[in-house]
Design goal:
Distance between the termini: 37 Å
Oligomer: single chain
Radius of gyration: 24 Å
Helix content: 55-70%
Shape: globular
Order of helices and strands: HHHHHEHEHEHEHHEHEEHHEHH
Number of helices: 15
Largest sheet: 3 strands, antiparallel
Strand content: 5-15%
């Protein structure tokens, strides 16, 4: 019992901060906050770094640094994607090497490094359960589409365009440009998002698809293992992201305030995002997180039968078996044969698809294994849509927003 009391005291001590100290830290971070609000991201990074140099426990400065670095990471990632796509297009016209792996690796390595810096800053912000930051994202005047000026498309990018009924808000409606009251739970939400992004970058670096051969011969795609360690890192990052998402969900449900929420719980009404949440949604959120973890670790598999019947076309004899997604985190190459894929898609009998999956994925396609509940959740959402209870698109938007 004494040990439990000691832990409680230590946790309580870490979770509390005197009003005077909090006010001093927030005042010290104010220049960084002002720069962030005016979309002067480079200055925000400099001021936040200076503030953290004076006191690394300044959660508000850490959050400003994280948001500014995240914006920079996304901006450069989009630039790299456009450059890469352009080089592929030009190369294809000249019948050259379509796929520049070196440039892709450079871009992914840089992106992962920057996301790691974002997560490091968020980890500092997370240490303060009382963290808050008021910020209007839609008020930023930024040339997002790189047209040379801040045009109407830039201004509308981060605006809230629809209300809860799905109707468009008037152009001059203040609800289009809300000021969010970010808090501790939102830090966890962003940490989850960052780790999911790092998982994707590591996953792409782990595999080496022969895209050039595919584009030239159009008959098969050979996918070799490029870096087994990256595949393991990808899974580690994904599991870490799921952990952050779980803690975020718990933190959101525990909130008792109700002020301009970014992620509202079922009892909160003050939120700008047109998302009507309820207890069932939070239960689905928890279920999806568990489902994804079970799939990634190989404890459960996706039922091919259920996946095939998710679409409008109902197979008279649907394929059977299970997809073991953990296979894609193991350093085992595979080959996708285009002709087999086309033939299997034309067959009403699912046996052709089963042969294609078995031939392509090896032990990634299994005849039996514990069934994931994820397709069932999607089927239930689709059925509710068809009954007119709520749109399938809106339900999916809820889950993507939460996760």
């Amino acid at each position: 019992m004494r040990h439990l009391l000691l832990v409680a005291v230590l946790v309580s001590g870490c979770a509390t901060m005197s009003p005077a100290r909090r006010a001093a830290l927030e005042q010290d971070a104010q220049p960084a906050v002002d720069a962030l609000k005016s979309a002067d991201f480079d200055v925000a990074i400099t001021r936040a770094t200076e503030s953290l140099g004076r006191d690394e426990k300044n959660a508000r400065a850490a959050a400003v640094l994280a948001i500014s670095l995240f914006r920079k990471a996304l901006h450069d990632a989009v630039t790299d994607a456009v450059t890469f796509a352009g080089s592929v297009a030009v190369s294809s016209l000249g019948r050259g090497s379509f796929f520049n792996r070196d440039y892709l690796d450079f871009a992914l390595t840089r992106l992962d490094g920057r996301l790691a810096d974002v997560d490091s800053a968020l980890a500092k912000a997370e240490t303060d359960p009382g963290f808050t930051l008021d910020l209007c994202l839609a008020c930023w005047q930024v040339d997002w589409n790189r047209s040379g000026e801040v045009d109407r498309r830039d201004e509308k990018l981060l605006q809230i365009e629809l209300d809860e009924r799905g109707e468009e808000l008037p152009e001059d409606d203040a609800r289009r440009r809300p000021t969010f009251h970010f808090d501790h739970a939102d830090v966890l939400w962003l940490r989850a998002l960052v780790m999911f992004g790092r998982s994707v970058t590591a996953f792409v670096q782990g595999w080496d698809p022969d895209v050039n051969a595919l584009m030239q011969t159009k008959d098969s795609l050979s996918v070799k293992v490029r870096d087994a360690k990256s595949l393991e890192t990808s899974r580690t990052h994904l599991l870490a992201g799921l952990g952050h998402a779980r803690r975020c969900r718990i933190a959101v449900l525990a909130e008792t305030d109700d002020e301009r929420e970014w992620l509202p719980n079922p009892t909160q009404r003050s939120h700008a995002m047109p998302l009507k949440v309820d207890a069932a949604l939070f239960e689905t959120w928890a279920g999806v997180l568990d489902d994804v973890e079970a799939l990634v670790t190989g404890r459960e598999g996706l039922s091919v039968t259920e996946l095939a019947q998710l679409g409008k076309h109902q197979w008279p004899k649907p394929p059977t078996g299970f997809l073991d997604l953990s296979r894609f985190y193991r350093p085992v190459p595979f080959v996708l044969v285009a002709d087999d894929a086309v033939m299997s898609s034309r067959e009403d009998d699912g046996a052709a698809l089963e042969r294609f999956l078995s031939k392509s994925l090896g032990d990634g396609f299994r005849s039996t294994m514990p069934k994931s509940r994820l397709p069932g959740r999607l089927t239930r959402m689709r059925d509710e849509m068809e009954r007119g209870e709520e749109s399938f698109e809106k339900k999916l938007r809820y889950l993507f927003w939460l996760n």
